[in-house]
Amino acid sequence: MSENNPLRDVFDAIADPTRRRLIQLLSEADEVPLHELTAQFPMGRTAVSKHLAILREAGLVTDRKVGRETRYRLHASPLREIEDWAAYYRKFWQKNLLRLNQLLEEEEE
Amino acid sequence: MSENNPLRDVFDAIADPTRRRLIQLLSEADEVPLHELTAQFPMGRTAVSKHLAILREAGLVTDRKVGRETRYRLHASPLREIEDWAAYYRKFWQKNLLRLNQLLEEEEE
DNA sequence: ATTATAAGACACCGTTTGGTGTCTTGTCAA
DNA sequence: TTGACAAGACACCAAACGGTGTCTTATAAT
Lengths: 109, 109
Hints:
The structure is a homodimer.
Chain A: H1 10-13, H2 17-28, E1 32-33, H3 34-38, H4 45-57, E2 61-66, E3 69-74, H5 79-88, H6 90-108
Antiparallel strand pairs in A: 1-3, 2-3
Chain A binds a DNA duplex through α4.
């Protein structure tokens, strides 16, 4: 039963820097066991495991047991919502840049 | 002194749905006073004001006093970091879509 | 068969978060 | 000039967050 309906807001899931780092690490290899991930952080296994649980609740990660280890895999598609959301506001900061450029040009005269 | 160095992580600032709604509301009009924003939410003025303070700390909003009201304005450029971050992972969910399509095609045979 | 490793489950804890209410100050309107 | 409105400042609170440590179970290695 691989959690399909997201119980956790994706925006919430990526808010924590540790979790963004986990996403990055998982993007560099296709499957990583918990203990190997834990080794990258200055915190204990339990904490990292909790962060991964949150990523899983947001649908950003799946896990499977292999022998005695639990291997995690990135499932990036929910990030599409983030990109779309931010892209929507692109026009606004582009507009700001435009106005900034205008001001700079005026000052140079 | 309009806060220039972001004391607050932008990812953190946009994690809350109320704050995302504020961003949306501010994108629809160029300047909105606090009481008018408050009217859109099921919570008190103090709470909305706190959310706006967090947005300001992330550089997403500026405010100015006009008479007895404080008017807020969207400053969207920090959202660029969000878009860039998410866009980086685009290839991963595209890859997933590709693999999903392959699986579906295989099943159809 | 024994020992070491991987990780789940759970209780615990201090800090942050997201809300409240109240009091005060400044400004606009009658 | 009196009253109403906008909002800052502050104290307060319950719940969530991000970490810890310990105990147990399953698997791998010697």
